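Here is a complete protein record:
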Amino acid sequence: MLSPTAYPCHTALRRALGLSVDHTLDVPVTTTLSRAGRAAPTLVTPDSSAAATEGRTPVSGPAAHTFTELLTATARLEAENGPVTTTVGDLAGARDLPVDEVRDTFLAWCASLVGCTVDQAAEIPARAVAGWITGASPEHPDAAPVWHLLATGLGELVSRIADSLGSNVRVGAPVRAIDVEDGRPCLLGAAGMSAYDAVVVATSAPRALDLVAGCSDLKPSAELLAAFDYVPTTVALHRDPAHMPADRAYWSTTCITTDDRWAESTVRLGPVLGTDVFKSWITHRAEPEDIIARADFRQLRPTVAGARAARSLASHQGRHGVYFAGSHLGGADSQESAVRSAIRVVRALVTRGDRLAVVAADPSRH
């Protein structure tokens, strides 16, 4: 999902590609947090419109207050440009809050975002999850914040960028390694080694590390790329509501179930698509029935070490003509951080361009 306010660069890119607000769908974002094996949820965030049309029942109480207090503290840290080394656990530990409530709400929510354990969630830099909090403000306390979905899918951006470049895009040409010869970057492909003026490595940290690991000139960059941690993740698109609360009154856009170790979410797409379809993280729980599609990949686990590596890697950009881009190089692993990292690279390579001028209109964003 896309934030209408916290993703300014991604929004500007969509506009530059002809994707206006008419190409997006509004999604009221609500959350249900449940403990495995318990019938009643720990909390259900409010949405006055859904309560009127679907009989939805919010659940508040002490756990909800704990959750809200930590969300507010995280948003404040981001607004004040606080240290990237302040973790979720640091924020929670600085407050006199019940440990079980912190674990079953805020830590479970953070763990569900990145696919790590609930214990590991305490190690996440708090600013890495701030975008999910500051992304949109509800119109009033009983309303749900509204995020956006691109109606044709995020792949539409890639297609439109490729179409604008015409025959300059080469597909089916995998790169095996990156080397440096005579101070210039070289790519090893099926046809051998080819030299270029500059190379932008726009992929995940593990894949980027694989590409540069054999080049001694790029060893400092490789050492920094090794600091990023990723976890195996399985996601399924399905029709079976197996991982939703048994009582539909507790259904939310995102329903998170936690046990003693893991917290995984199910996103309900029904209100947007007009039929009940669900997207579930099932790495550590049973597969639902009636699966439409599934994907296995590795998800970034934000860490303090990774945040420091991202900042250090900035000083290595452009050495020997090699640049790095990707969502892992921003404060949060999101579409916005991916676009921002790309803008920083493009600024180093070109001085002008109509699309760059539109997307990067405000230098303070990058």
Notes: The two ends are 21 Å apart (CA to CA). The longest strand covers residues 291-301. The mean pLDDT is 90.
